Amino acid sequence: xxxxxxxxxxxxxxxxxxxxxxxxxxxxxxxxxxxxxxxxxxxxxxxxxxxxxxxxxxxxxxxxxxxxxxxxxxxxxxxxxxxxxxxxxxxxxxxxxxxxxxxxxxxxxxxxxxxxxxxxxxxxxxxxxxxxxxxxxxxxxxxxxxxxxxxxxxxxxxxxxxxxxxxxxxxxxxxxxxxxxxxxxxxxxxxxxxxxxxxxxxxxxxxxxxxxxxxxxxxxxxxxxxxxxxxxxxxxxxxxxxxxxxxxxxxxxxxxxxxxxxxxxxxxxxxxxxxxxxxxxxxxxxxxxxxxxxxxxxxxxxxxxxxxxxxxxxxxxxxxxxxxxxxxxxxxxxxxxxxxxxxxxxxxxxxxxxxxxxxxxxxxxxx
Length: 367
Known about the structure:
Elements: E1 13-14, H1 33-58, H2 72-79, E2 87-89, H3 95-101, H4 105-112, H5 137-151, E3 157-162, H6 169-181, E4 185-191, E5 194-195, E6 198-199, H7 200-203, E7 220-224, H8 228-243, E8 249-254, H9 273-280, H10 284-294, H11 300-324, H12 344-366
Parallel strand pairs: 1-7, 2-3, 3-4, 4-8, 7-8
Antiparallel strand pairs: 5-6
């Protein structure tokens, strides 16, 4: 039958820093040398903290947690585009973004150590707690953005999620509402190629994640997620547009999870060493480091000094967190802090639990 074109679209990709550490000066964001060095230091801090957390988990001193190795450029670069009056709505793989926002390392250690006090982020940081359910927090980000618009605040909300979350209904609802009401929110997808063990190739038929924005009347753009300069440039533009009343943006950040999904996962069961090694050559930290060295902002000696200083900071945070978490072994704590006044059924369960523990202790003595 006769047809005529109705809609056409294209998706742009942003790259600033190539694999050799060379910058396209026409696209270079406006950053001072001090800001560039700060970004590098924070990426190294994120990597070292991630590695230390992994060791603590394997020693039984920390619970299951999601590693972030390989994705430092993605979430650190995006969070750096925010102002203190903006909101950050994380998923669960944004350790570096949370620390950049001002969340203390010991508080993150508490959270992943099973101490719920680790979720109590300072209110003035405008940062929501870690969200484990996939995709649900995107709706929270849209609600916050809508409230900002209603209040007349020139601020924005930025929310992180993985490409797997774009297959959830929550993603569609959040995107649709953001498009309809033109709220100041930035949807930041860390496309790390794997939704646990499900590869990107069978996760969706879309050629890009960014093009999913088109259906909701929202701009969509793809960025090299291992190029922190490109990530920052794209995020800053989107956040500034949101603050100015230009509505939402979807940013697809193409990166890679070099470690396991969580410490309870074995990635060797579903992906090859060759694939991992290919992406390891695109590691965002050495890539950015090469640029800093070429610009005279970093040297081999200063790299070692910085890494040693960061290791000392992390050790101090571990000691503070473990001191704070002493005494959390009492199982009766599970009944506390949920209600201001404990309901009758919970009091009954608590009493039954105390009785069962006492009986178990008697059996141990007679065994």
